[in-house]
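just leaving the lab so this will be short. what follows is a protein written twice so to speak, once as letters and once as structure tokens for the fold. can you read through it and tell me how you think this chain folds. anything you notice is useful, everything is just below:
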Amino acid sequence: MNTLIGKHIKDNSRRKFTGGGPRPDRTEFKRTKGAERDAKWRALSPKEQLAELDKRLGVGVGAVKQRKRIAAKMNQPKAESRRVAA
């Protein structure tokens, strides 16, 4: 039911979410979607991550720090596992 104050002014005091900040029903949704995106990104190899950045932003454009981190991963020699046999 719309409550009218004066001639044509709608009373918005009956809103469902009156507090500040994000809507409570969207918080969990955004958290799960973010976790899914993060898992997909981590599953990619460094070369695939660079290719994905190039596809999104253009070749060598933007995400300078991210590209630097990925390049460091690619140049780093693979560490062998050092387990001591008991």
The mean pLDDT is 80. The helical segments are 24-43, 46-57, 64-75.
